[in-house]
Amino acid sequence: MNLLMKEIINHLVPENQLAIWWLGQSGFVIKTGEGKIIVIDAYLSNSAAKNRTDLERLVSIPIPPEELMCDYYICTHNHTDHADPETIRNVKNKEQICFIGPRNVVKSYVEWGVPEGNTRMLEAGENISLGDISLTGTFCIPNSESVLDSIGIILQYRGLSIYHSGDTGYHPFLSYLNKYEIDMALLCINGKFGNMNCDEAFALTREIKPKYAVPCHFDMFPINREDPKRFCSLFEQDELKNAQCIVPKVGILITITNV
Predict the structure, then answer these.
(1) Rounded distance, CA 253 to CA 126, Å?
(2) 51: pLDDT confidence band, cut at 50, 70 and 90?
(3) Beta strands in the chain (DSSP E)
(4) What is the Cα–Cα distance from 25 to 45, expressed in whole angstroms?
């Protein structure tokens, strides 16, 4: 078994905690105190490089798709680096996994071999309950007409709340997320292809006030890189000290606790 997947499976999460592992780009694995494993926007292939050399993968694949194990698989929108056909086609035991996403993602799931009965649609403004896990689709500024149904995700579990921005530009309306009392915000910072840049992602943290801000979507492709230290430097200069910035490392555990 892949070493990271083995670590995730064997890691015991306290009931008042969430465990998070970064997979590179916008991909994350989250594990609950009940042992449920949630995968978000996993890009575990090099499929984006098939037609573009400037989209050659720069980060080693942390978990081969055929060894990925989870209970819930979420994609925020239908771009290859978020809803990856090669990753999804090669995930085993699809009949034991609930695949979640907006309308066009759900259509793609079925095309890529997911049983239709194992899909659930989640649009912006909607909420679904999965036992002790609650998922809410959030507003996004999409970056192309093909992904007008893009969403972010708020995952809530026993008093803890994680916001995953998906791909989005900055908009003042996103300040409405403040009401969710977010503990950790996973934020795109690449500043290209319509996404928030470091300054915009920082401005959003000042509005939604998470305890922790984790930059992502900065490492994968030669044409789409950003220095996450620049993002964190904005927090060091912030007199309000509204959040702590954590630069993730692929495969390294991060936890948040409800104290």
Answers:
(1) 30
(2) confident
(3) 17-24, 27-31, 37-40, 72-74, 98-101, 119-121, 127-130, 133-138, 152-157, 160-164, 184-188, 212-216, 244-245, 253-257
(4) 12
